[in-house]
Design goal:
This protein has 298 residues and is α/β, with parallel strands linked by helices. It folds into two domains: 2-170 and 277-283, Flavodoxin domain (Rossmann fold, 3-Layer(aba) Sandwich), CATH 3.40.50; 178-248, Alpha-Beta Plaits (2-Layer Sandwich), CATH 3.30.70. Helix content is 34%, strand content 17%. The chain is built from eleven helices and nine strands. The strands form three sheets. It has a five-stranded parallel beta sheet, sandwiched between helices. A two-stranded antiparallel ribbon has the order 6-9. The protein has a two-stranded antiparallel sheet with strand order 7-8. β7 and β8 form a beta hairpin. α1 packs across α4 and α2 (63-70) runs parallel beside α3 (99-107). The two termini are 22 Å apart.
């Protein structure tokens, strides 16, 4: 089977999930192509399955994902798997985050086979504890293996969010406009060296260098990658400052965390309402399967 995995990623978590899916399908004997959504106009004609991965932005798929689907040509019942990734898990207000995307894909004659929420370390408002971040990376291949096994065996998985959660997703869609405003108001201090790293790492090419400072366009998605990845710490939010984790966020540093198979005290480490979804996700083992793929990702 030819599988195309398309993803939108800012700080790297979703890209890691997409590559994990790619390796798991490959280990089971299938051909895969893994691409960023900003580097492919549409799925290849000869694929048998599309896997679409996105990080949840304000209870929704990010605007580039919705725009990508809107611009697709109509398909002939092409099967699709939708994987959403969040730092909070399958809880309110994220329960309906896939609904607008499912509707958009249905209008393009795609056939939904499976949908699933996976959890990765949070890069938004409150950072995930190191011990939880390490554990989330540890269980990811097992969660992915379970999904791949279900899909290959013809099992489906659908959610049916209630009206209240659908309303929250509708309200959250206003974040698309807010994200564009956020990008225009990013501040650059005197420590900027014009290294161009922010330009290189912006997933939507919204940043350019002009004169003695980076200039931000109108297409910001509020992924925060430019702020977190600036080696000088020269970029600062001019509005909505609360969304940026004060200690920063580096997915490469999280990948480098030591890991072990020892159990952790989730009642202690995932204490509080904000971590209910993470605790539930890590506690649940019935959706985990020994991965066929072994070893580090490329």
């Amino acid at each position: 089977m030819n599988v195309q995995i398309v993803y939108f990623s800012g700080t790297g978590c979703t890209e890691h999930v997409a590559k994990t899916f790619s390796k798991e399908f490959q280990a089971r004997g299938h051909t895969t192509l893994c691409r960023s959504i900003t580097k492919t106009e549409s799925p290849d004609e000869d694929i048998d399955l599309l896997v679409l991965c996105f990080a949840v932005h304000a209870s929704n798929a990010p605007e580039p994902v919705m725009r990508w689907v809107k611009n697709l040509e109509k398909a002939d019942e092409r099967p699709v798997v939708i994987i959403s990734i969040s730092g909070g898990g399958e809880v309110t207000p994220n329960l309906a985050c896939r609904v607008p995307l499912k509707r958009a894909l249905k209008r393009k004659n795609y056939r939904l086979l499976y949908e699933k929420m996976l959890v990765m370390p949070s890069n938004w408002i409150v950072g995930t504890k190191r011990v939880l971040s390490s554990k989330l990376l540890q269980v990811l291949p097992y969660k992915v293996s379970y999904v791949v096994n279900d899909v290959l065996n013809g099992k489906s998985s659908f959610t049916h969010p209630l009206l209240g959660n659908r309303f929250l997703t509708f309200i959250g869609s206003l974040e698309h406009a807010g994200a564009r405003s956020f990008g225009k108001k990013i501040l650059v201090d005197k420590s900027c060296t014009l290294c161009g790293l922010c330009v290189k790492r912006c997933p939507v090419s919204n940043i350019s260098l002009h004169g003695d400072r980076p200039v931000f366009g109108k297409n910001c998605t509020l992924c925060l990658n430019c702020i977190y990845s600036c080696p000088q710490g020269a970029l600062h939010p001019g509005t909505m400052k609360f969304v940026v984790i004060k200690k920063g966020f580096s997915f490469q540093e999280i990948l480098a965390l030591p890991s072990d198979n020892l159990p952790i005290d989730l009642d202690k480490e995932a204490k509080g309402f904000a971590w209910v979804g993470v605790k539930r996700y890590l506690s649940k083992t019935s959706d985990m399967l020994e991965p066929a793929f072994q070893g580090p990702l490329d």
